[in-house]
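User: Fold both of these, please.

Assistant: Here is the first one.
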Amino acid sequence: MTTLVSTTDTLTRDALAVLQPGFVGTTAPDWLLRAIGDGLTSVGLFGRNVADPEQLAALTRRLRREREDILVAIDEEGGDVTRLEVRHGSSFPGNYALGAVDDPELTRDVARELGRRLAACGVNLNWAPSADVNSNPDNPVIGVRSFGADPELAARHTAAYVEGLQAAGVAACVKHFPGHGDTAVDSHHALPRIDVDLDTLHARELLPFRAAIAAGSRSVMSAHILLPALDPERPATLSPRILTGLLREELGFQGPIVTDGMEMQAIASVYGIERGSVLAIAAGADAICVGGGLADEGTVLRLRDALVAAVRSGELPEERLADAAARVRALADWTLRARVSPGAGTPGAATQEGTAPGTASSAGAAASGGAPGVVPTPDIGLLAARRALRVTGTATPLTRAPYVAVLTPVANIAVGEETPWGLATELNHLLPGTQTATYAEAPPEDTSTPTPDPATRILTAAGDRTTVAVVRDAHRHPWMRATLDALLTARPDTLVVEMGLNEAPPSGALHIATHGAARVCARAAAEVLAGRVR
């Protein structure tokens, strides 16, 4: 296979500069280091690249030995979508919880602390926050990643988040432009379509993005969605009308536009990643995000060569590629100045890069509610999670370890299956001996070996223990609601904890809505159940 070799060709360097590739492993492979030397300006990190803060800091230091101003990007929304704490769950509630509190100053503080931790590990570009207005409660991919269904609320919290994150010296990348909230299809799997008129788009979808631009967001991520009112033929990521006409010219955004992952099926299955990347840059995008699924040297080579070939054939104007590369390099320069001189560009104090956040022993971290190796900040993350709780009904605090039944939906790709969620771990800290099991939708019945329904299995396993049923987006899953109904009929004292959208009517002797499935949200709910409210 052809490998990357050192070159000083301007066109090739520009083609590499607009790529944001991922890689496999917790150390930088040789091919990636060579690519950085050849002009690659950005690297994307995923959960597979993070073991702990110390390892991550060492990884980013190694990348900066090749290029001091390298953009190190990560998808760290907090809440359900975490890469920094992928193995344990986030120390911060996500957008939906922050929107439920509706205190923009709290949102700003949470984002600032999250940014501080990222900066301390050497990460300087966060593909966050989600500015999507979750107007469709059946949306399979946004949900709790949104601040809520109210455009004004989403706008004020998007702006606060951008300000807090960038005050820590980490560039925000507001997503998914022009708004992924009113979709019923996950763009990881297919192309969603939003059929609303222009007035609705401007009054609803675009409001948070206008607020983000006014707040100084350094970058914006495009969505792989079709909006016929704006462009009936091409998805936003590939649409000159949307990226150049709307975002650049009408809304006045001048920073780099980053695509969502190009290997997502909304693009890859229709255009292919090479053709899609050329069309995206031609439409006005400046950086190609790839690497969630395709994370090897061959992918980088193919995309680089496709861009170079498109320029040489006249399909992609050379000045458009050069402009895109210049916007990416300008962002890299901003992050370098923010790191070296805290406050450059955005008021605030950035953390000195290269030293991981304060660490503690696994035992000490666990005792204070944090993941092993990370000192938590309960005055921000846990405080916010506590404030986000909505409790309906009354019940005597648990004094005996309960049985926790977790009704588990299929995880969406953005959240990932590797991040644990649920209540049992946090409840076991307070009530040792807590038992738990997960339950999924029953498969079609096999008449030869029929499977008992989840409620029957839960009741059998719980015995005489109090049952705590944990659900996630119960309103979207009829089997979850049916299971809850059966449990409550048999055991009216069942306690219910909803860790997704709080759309279904409250049920149970006690109903707790956490507004997200982050570890810190579970901790806050466990405190209520055990009568340890602070």
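And the second sequence with its predicted structure:
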Amino acid sequence: MSAQEERSALTPPTALYDHVLHLLRESPGGVPPRRGYCLPLKTAAGEDPLSREEAKSAVREALSPLPDDPITLQRRFERLGIQDRHIHLIRSTVAGLPLPTDQVDVARTLGRMLIRTGTTAPTVTAGIALLGRLGEPEDVPYLSVLGLFRELAGAAVNALDILDRRSGAIVWLVAYARRVELQPFVRALWTGDRQAVRPELVALPASPRFVSSTVARRIAEASPLPDLLDHHPSDTGLLARAGRLLVRMGCSRNDPTDLLAYRDALHVYDSVVGRAGLLPPTLDNAALLLSLALDLSSGPGVLLDWPPERRAELLESLGRLLAEPRWVAAGATASAADQRLRADWIRRTGRRPFEHRTAVPGSFRIEVVAGDPADREPVEARVLIDGRPVVPSVFDSGPAHSPEYLLDEGRLRAGVEPREVQLAEAHCTEGCCGALYVTIRRDADQVVWENWRKTMPGSRNPAAELPAYRFEASAYDTEIARAETDCSWSWRARTIARLIKAGLIEEPDLLSRWDAGRGWISSGFDDPGTAVVTFWYVPGLASGNPDRADRPLQFRWVVPDDGTPPEAQAAAALRRLAEEDPKSYARVCGGSRERAEELGFPWPDSA
């Protein structure tokens, strides 16, 4: 053994807590880098020799009985084959570990020793998980520092959320807020520069691509937002930022349950709506207040634990304010196309959240909600039972389906034969993160919604059970008919797309004659002022002899709004489809480059 090897063998390994403190001292200004530090993991290469159940059993064995010190636990882990790759399993196993009352103090002491002196990821993870159950305020600084390791951040934040939610939010932002634009705000939080927190918060970008629902909640928790609002009651920039954070938390395109998880939501709603009259009546602020009203009337805001009548009072206050002439005129001078689109949305939607405020037991209502065009929110057909939105109350992976899906094709109509309907699907796909289903049937003079089903691929937890609901059939049919025929929520390009889709459903031969099948048809996502028609092309489809149907090409045709009546534009589009092969004017947008080149179509550079 060389001298260097001998010294290394005799030098005890550095505790992970001490290691991250050293990294912090080396970082400029003592501020951790974006996404924190990498843990020096020591997982062996190759497949895990232990199955999940074997690893879980080994973790339980290592902790039974509870060891006296980190070294003993480390040796047990090593003997049983527990490695760095098992840290997530260690977390879940320790969280469910039975702890008799007489072992609580021993377990807490062990947890503290593990996080302060543990030298390996498995032992420190076990300590964090124990303190997630048994920790006290004195453990917060240690957990906050260890959370700077990316691999330990999730466990540390879970523990901190219980002990000190603000500290948990700060660590979360360090570890997971990837946008560089957020870093000045995160720096102010980490260094404790309270004078800088408010201006940096107000200066944050408002775009959804910068602030997801979870980022919005963590920003509000870390600030902390209620304290800032209470100490700066006349700061209209802060007031508007607080309102936008609430809107982002309830964003159905991300995870609307972030709003429900935000413990200070009621306080912030009270502050923002109570002082909304201080805001200047700009287009941005009018859109903000209308978005808040939509959430409070039919969105996740309804599901908060409101005191009696308080939500109705806030809605009434917003309704009065937005009806004032100065606010009605907020979008009158809009000149740019995106501003005109937004002003038109306010004009169409402005009174909708204030029309249905009373819900009686057993009531059924559908509220089609088109959100702020600037946020590119999906249009939802929100189903409300007893005045409460169904989808966000039980499904957190995606919004309610569009009215085109649920209403235009009659999926919510009740017949004698039971029909299973998908009410919502995950943002990614059902195969990734699940969907929500219900079975609808008619039973004499009632309509029944029953056999609720949530698909959750890969989940080991059972889906929450929902009760069966019964509605008076005539009232149900009336509401379905109203919702199917009420198009007041729609804008011109969306109406054009809906009419084109309806025409293709009625006359599928308009596409099939060109060896094509209908795809997604709606308003454009990047440009809501256009209608977009997509279709799939398979040679030989019309003749009944499709060539390689498993490798279709997808085409995209953009129909700009030319200002003429939507009915006339849709009719013209359908005539063109009847008379001209759409492959000659649409562009390839999906499939494969090889198939496109084989069929003689150019492959787009951005596909």
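The longest strand covers residues 446-455.
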